[in-house]
Amino acid sequence: MNPKIQIIWFSDIPKFWIFRIRIFGYFGFGFKYGFFFNTPIIFDRTDFGISNISLPDGKCREDPHERVLKRHCTAHSVEYDVVLNTIRPLMVLTDVWCSSGALTPDGRLVQTGGFNDGERVVRVFDKSCGKCDWKEIPSGLVNRRWCVINHVLPDGCQIVIGGRRQFNYEFYPKTMSSDKAYSLTFLAQTNDPVIENNLYPFVFLNTDGNLFFFCE
C-alpha cells in the first residue's frame, strides 16, 4: 500500500496547525516552495512504482531505462496551490531520487541530478507560463550527480557540488567558459569510502562572496 502525505499550513493562531488537504497514494521525498507564486512543488523518486494520482489528459510516463515500471500513467510530482487548496499533477520523467535544486532569481525551480537515468539530468519548472510542466535536459550536467547540493551564487547561476564519488563541482546554466567540472580536493580529503560520509555537503554563501563548506 502506498503511504500518504498530508499538506499542512501554519495558521495565524500561535501553536496551531491546520490540515489543508490530504493526498492518498503519494509520498513526497522532495519539497520546494515557489516564493513568487505560493505554489510548493512536491516530487518523489520514480522507481517505487505507481502512485494513486493520475496524469492529466491521458498522459503516460514511458521510460525504457526505468527499473520498476517502464510505462504507467500516474504522477510522481504535483504542484500545490496554497490559495485554492488544490493540486495539479506534473510529469517528471527521470528519477529525482537524491537530486538537489534551487530557485533562480526569476522564480524558476532548477533540479539537478538524481538516480539511474536521472543522474546527469537538469529539470526546470517555470511557473510563470501558467500551466507548464517539468522541462528535462537529458545531458545538462557534465558528471553524474547523486546526493548532490546546489547553491545560488550572486550572479544568479548555481554551483552544483559533489555527489556520490564525485569530488568536483560544476555550474548551471552552462556557458562556453563553464562547460566542465572542476576538481574539489576538499571532498576527496573528507570522504570515508566505507560510509560515504560527505554526501550532501553543507554550503553557505558568505557576505564577502566566498563559499563556506562543511562536510560530516
Could you explain the architecture of this structure?
This protein is an all-beta fold and 216 residues long. The chain is 2% helix and 34% strand. It is built from one helix and 18 strands. The chain has a four-stranded antiparallel β-sheet with strand order 3-4-7-8, with no helix packed on it. The protein is globular and about 50 Å long. The N terminus is likely disordered.
Quick summary of this structure?
This protein has 216 residues and is mainly β.
Furnish the topology, listing elements before pairings:
Layout: E1 4-10, E2 17-24, E3 30-32, E4 41-43, E5 61-62, E6 71-72, E7 77-81, E8 86-90, E9 100-103, E10 109-112, E11 122-125, E12 135-137, E13 149-152, E14 158-161, E15 168-172, E16 182-183, H1 185-189, E17 202-205, E18 211-214
Antiparallel strand pairs: 1-2, 3-4, 4-7, 5-6, 7-8, 9-10, 10-11, 11-12, 13-14, 14-15, 15-16, 17-18
Structural class: mainly beta
Helix content, binned percent: under 10%
- Which overall shape is indicated by the principal axes computed on the Cα atoms? globular
Terminal Cα span: 35 Å
User: Secondary-structure element sequence?
Assistant: EEEEEEEEEEEEEEEEHEE
Q: Average the pLDDT over all residues and give the rounded result.
A: 83
Beta fraction of the residues?
25-35%
Number of helices: 1
* Strand arrangement, major sheet: 3-4-7-8
Q: Which regions are unreliable across 5 or more consecutive residues at pLDDT < 50?
A: 1-11
Cα gyration radius (Å): 18 Å
- Largest sheet, if any? 4 strands, antiparallel
- The count of β-strands is 18
Question: Any key phrases for this structure?
Answer:
34% strand; single chain; four-stranded antiparallel β-sheet; disordered N terminus; 2% helix; mainly beta; 216 residues; 1 helix
